[in-house]
Amino acid sequence: MVQKYQSPVRVYKHPFELIMAAYERRFPTCPLIPMFVASDTVNEFKSEDGAIHVIERRCKLDIDAPRLLKKIAGVDYVYFVQKNSLNRQDRTLHIEAYNETFSNRVIINEHCCYTVHPDNEDWTCFEQSASLDIKSFFGFESTVEKIAMKQYTSNIKKGKEIIEYYLKQMEEDGITFVPRWTPPVMYKLENSTSHIARPVSPAINIPDTATKEGLNNKEVLNTSSSPSEPTAGTPDDKLDADYIKRYLGDLTPLQESCLIRLRQWLQETHKGKIPKDEHILRFLRARDFNIDKAREILCQSLTWRKQHQVDYILDTWNPPQVLQDYYAGGWHHHDKDGRPLYVLRLGQMDTKGLVRALGEEALLRYVLSINEEGLRRCEENTKVFGRPISSWTCLVDLEGLNMRHLWRPGVKALLRIIEVVEANYPETLGRLLILRAPRVFPVLWTLVSPFIDDNTRKKFLIYAGNDYQGPGGLLDYIDKEIIPDFLSGECMCDVPEGGLVPKSLYRTAEELENEDLKLWTETIYQSASVFKGAPHEIFIQIVDASSVITWDFDVCKGDIVFNIYHSKRVPQPPKKDSLGTHSITSPGGNNVQLIDKVWQLGRDYSMVESPLICKEGESVQGSHVTRWPGFYILQWKFHSMPACATTSLPRVDDVLASLQVSSHKCKVMYYTEVIGSEDFRGSMTSLESSHSGFSQLSAATTSSSQSHSSSMISR
């Protein structure tokens, strides 16, 4: 398995030239890196004007590995080749390194880059990426991988310290300024008296530099400073190391890398809908920074949020008066760590009455609104306290809990709520304080605990009777001034006292069922299943040419091919019989086929857009400007892996891909809309479907790109 690393952008608040002078002091040896024994220059090139300096070194490393492993490998030292390409004119340094020792067994590649900060030319940015691929190593592949990762992460931590160490050393030597590179006088005179473009330096193979054959100094400078082509480090979507520490906390280098890589993947597949960094980090923490597992549950959660419009719950949903009067819970200041504090007087709550009066769905929606408010309060407290706060504390008072609370439908509702919250709000509970637990509590705990994640259970602190008043109790976590009055504190707690819900507010099962259906079908999106050999199709009738068909869909499972067809013939409506040939009903969504099998492509209908292959987890938005009136058919078809043209045997990649698909079934969630061309501005921000963006979890990002063709697809 290939291990990859991607660093955040690290910023030195010093000019590029000063950083380069400090960097050069690392060679030929560096006392701060004991494993770096020596380095020899094997190749060097300098341009005539001094702008380009390429140096290749062979570095000798003493890896901290068991003596037995070194003896088996037959080496005491490991050699790496490092190539530094410095462009003083563009103020960039690109570093490439690879292993020379055991290169047929282990492949290590590293790329580093120093550039000028895009917003401050007196600051310097640094980025680093690397990959490790161990093919074989005498049966010690796992051991070598652990040693390599340990050594690499320790050196990453030292990287910034080393530069700062040499900067301080230079300051002690009286060096606090290094002038920028300027063309020699001879070249200035030649350029001012000659109108013939001539190269300053011969063309050489330097990765990612702006030096091009046939460009003079002025042309190179203009190319590198063009606003339409930002230099390395300028994109706004890159994470800064200082930002991570300030808003996300202290992460290890590998944890930073996981966050950046998952974030990059989301940017590629969910343009305009990127969750905030702290939310991505929660899912990574919930899966111990396993990117594949975190990506899976995050995509499921994003689809769930979009389908049920959870992002707008605080703005669009008003809790029923019954909840406001009888739900004994509310926000109450913060704990000693700055986390928002939520108080729940569960023992005073009539769970049976609330379920009978409102149903499960209303209770679930109310709990979701509490969690959304918790996310908002975490952001506010992060700004107020000047440190990252990503979770809240919950104080649960169980005084009054009895067998009445173990009513089976009530427990069922509680378990469902826990399941939904665990799946979509991981790592949001920082601490749970359970106070005045009665003798019946172990029964409730036995029912509930299997549905709670192990990491979450570790955050539970349970106090029986008045134990919370003693040492190690409530005062260790909450300031005395804000302990609620009902817990013998001095602070008035503005939380409803609960009590019995009047039976006059109870509703019948039929009324609750209809209300529950209404709550969770308030979505503009539809679900569909796509089977191998059975695509899902919808048709849109266009009366006026130049209308705009827009779509927004998510591929929830499997890979699909998206097609758009035009037909003058009326597609046959699907049969109502679920066993018919045109319509298949499944639990995961409907499947409808409109294109008759006797229709011929090119005669009865025609393709108006090139097929678009969409991978699992991708979110796709696009539009098509219609040229003719008639019927347009949008089709989602199962994507079959192409067979190899030269042999009848399947390819290895095809076999591996097929093993990952449990069945020949895909799921999509889609929304379409037709608008007049005069109202379409070429941006998804003009569509109702753009409201599916994650307003609470997303930064202010949009994917508005004007298309010059008749269709626009953004992924």
Assembly state of the chains shown: single chain
The CATH architecture category of the largest domain equals 3-Layer(aba) Sandwich
Radius of gyration (Å): 31 Å
Percent helix: 25-40%
Instruction: Could you tell me the CATH topology label of the largest domain.
Output: Phosphatidylinositol Transfer Protein Sec14p
Give the termini separation.
28 Å
User: What is the typical, i.e. mean, pLDDT?
Assistant: 80
* Count of discrete structural domains: 4
What percentage of the residues does DSSP assign to strands (E)? 15-25%
Poorly predicted residue ranges: 193-235, 577-588, 644-662, 682-715
Give a count of the beta strands, DSSP E runs of length 2 or more: 25
Subunit structure: Interacts with RIGI (via tandem CARD domain); the interaction is direct. Interacts (via GOLD domain) with SLC18A3; the interaction is direct. Interacts with SLC5A7 (via GOLD domain); the interaction is direct.
GO cellular component, one term: cytosol
Domain PRELI/MSF1: 3-175
GO molecular function: protein sequestering activity; RIG-I binding
Structure notes:
Helices cover 30% and strands 24% of the residues. The radius of gyration is 31 Å and the shape is globular. The chain is α+β, with helices and mostly antiparallel strands. Strands 1, 2, 3, 4, 5, 6, 7 and 8 form an eight-stranded antiparallel beta sheet that branches. The two termini are 28 Å apart. It contains 18 helices and 25 strands. It has four domains: 2-173, Alpha-D-Glucose-1,6-Bisphosphate, Chain A, domain 4; 241-308, Helicase, Ruva Protein, domain 3; 311-504, CRAL-TRIO lipid binding domain (Phosphatidylinositol Transfer Protein Sec14p, 3-Layer(aba) Sandwich); 523-701, Jelly Rolls (Sandwich). InterPro entries: CRAL-TRIO_dom, CRAL-TRIO_dom_sf, CRAL/TRIO_N_dom, CRAL/TRIO_N_dom_sf, GOLD_dom, GOLD_dom_sf, PRELI/MSF1_dom, SEC14/CRAL-TRIO_domain. Residues 3-175 form the PRELI/MSF1 domain. Interacts with RIGI (via tandem CARD domain); the interaction is direct. Interacts (via GOLD domain) with SLC18A3; the interaction is direct. Interacts with SLC5A7 (via GOLD domain); the interaction is direct. GO terms for molecular function: protein sequestering activity; RIG-I binding. Residues 319-495 form the CRAL-TRIO domain.
